[in-house]
Design goal:
It is built from nine helices and eleven strands. With 382 residues, it is of the alpha/beta class. The structure holds 2-acetamido-2-deoxy-beta-D-glucopyranose (NAG) (3 copies). Pfam families: DUF707 (PF05212).
Length: 382
């Protein structure tokens, strides 16, 4: 007898059996992973057991070199995970001696190392400067509290003169002639080097900070959970994009209206998920991603602003402009006037031309990279 009810029951039994088998399989898999992975399955890789006691751990699989193990523990407190611990190239070292990250904290030559630092600043601000802008930078630095490490990138080879300012003696000075902000940032602000800082400011030298306070700014950034941000730019300044102009009556804005035809729905850069490259502020995680996107040879960083959103999940919500702390953009020709006169063009024209070329090249590279990525996926699936 083949009643529909019976076959219904049969089907149910099979489903349950499959389900039990599946769950058992998972448990078996988990315990195998727990017990055997390090000793027998992958004997040639240096693995150590990760649990809540070990919170800072590095592995090539980590998305940002920090706390991956802890994040996984949140998924299931009792799930144990095995990870290789040493960074690539350092596998021979005993894991506990490996320091894969660093900082800019200045230390003494004497005494005990653990007594060197009276405090560890949680934030970092860098300015790319020429000595001619010293008064503006001096005024700007006063808007950053003792909770900031100050880094100056010098493009004009004049460093010792800055010691006229008391704060300069505690700043980090890095000098290379006629290089741009993004050139320095790529080389000296590697995410593993600035890993101690919750937020990194990478700013131009021609900003007016009369109406800006960095601590207050970060309060707003934290309140709104912004991963990438900038202060609003005063409406009297030269400006390129509506999104970055200060709005009245709000603390933060994440969208703006542009000229006809610029904004799509849902809005993308330059109408949302967008800040400009003159005064960006990155969270630690966002900077780790953005650093990887910066090209070594595209030194002006044009086009980067349109691509920042690729580094942030839910970019529309996590990228924004802070309106209660705002800045002036003074548009002082500085580094840009230090180009070279060529083919009858003025120095600044040559620089401007290169900016436009770089923007085009960056867009092409990104498009090619994305195409290559999606092709890779297709061939894996097929
Ligand atoms: C790792 O996570 C723990 C708990 O969430 C936290 O206390 C610790 O500061 C984190 N460590 C790093 C390096 O982020
Ligand atoms: C976590 O995994 C263990 C098995 O490793 C399981 O017994 C437990 O029910 C899981 N807990 C949750 C909250 O999923
Ligand atoms: C510096 O940071 C500490 C700790 O978060 C805070 O208490 C203090 O107010 C900060 N300093 C200023 C000037 O805001």
């Amino acid at each position: 007898m083949n009643s529909p009810i019976k076959s219904g029951k049969e089907a149910m039994k099979t489903t349950i059996a499959l389900f039990v088998g599946f769950v058992f399989g998972i448990f078996l898999g988990l315990s195998l992973t727990k017990m055997n992975l390090s000793s027998s399955l992958i004997p040639s890789i240096n693995l150590i057991y990760v649990d809540d006691q070990i919170s800072t751990i590095y592995s090539p699989y980590l998305k940002d070199g920090r706390n991956f193990s802890i994040e996984h523990h949140k998924l299931n407190e009792t799930t144990k995970i095995w990870l290789p611990t040493n960074p690539p190239g350092a596998e021979r070292l005993p894991p506990k001696i490996v320091e894969s990250q660093s900082d800019f904290y200045l230390r003494r030559l004497w005494g005990l190392p653990h007594e060197d630092l009276s405090m560890k600043p949680k934030y970092l601000v860098s300015f790319t400067v020429g000595y001619d802008q010293r008064d503006n930078i001096d005024a700007a630095i006063k808007k950053f509290s003792e909770n900031f490490t100050i880094v100056l990138f010098h493009y004009d080879d004049r460093i010792s003169e800055w010691n006229q300012f008391e704060w300069s003696k505690k700043a980090i000075h890095i000098s290379a002639r006629k290089q741009t902000k993004w050139w320095y940032a790529k080389r000296f602000l590697h995410p593993d080097i600035v890993a101690s800082y919750d937020y990194v400011f990478i700013w131009d030298e021609d900003l007016g900070l009369e109406r800006f306070d960095a601590e207050e700014y970060l309060k707003i950034v934290k309140k709104y959970g912004l991963e990438i941000s900038q202060p609003g730019v005063d409406r009297s300044s030269d400006y390129t994009w509506e999104m970055t102009r200060k709005k009245d009556g709000v603390e933060v804005h994440k969208e703006a209206e542009e000229k006809d035809g610029w904004c799509s729905n849902p809005p993308v850069p330059p109408c949302a998920a967008f800040v400009e490259i003159m005064a960006p502020v990155f969270s630690r995680d966002a900077w780790r991603c953005v650093w990887h996107m910066i090209q070594n040879d595209l030194v002006h960083g044009w086009g980067l602003d349109f691509a920042l959103r690729k580094c942030v999940e839910n970019a529309h919500d996590k990228i924004g402009v802070v309106d209660t702390q705002w800045i002036l953009h003074k548009s002082i020709p500085s580094l840009n006037s230090q180009g070279q006169a060529e083919n009858g063009k003025k120095p600044w024209e040559g620089v401007r031309d290169r900016c436009h070329k770089e923007w085009k090249m960056f867009k092409e590279r990104m498009a090619n990279a994305e195409a290559a990525q999606s092709q890779g996926h297709n061939s894996m699936n097929s």
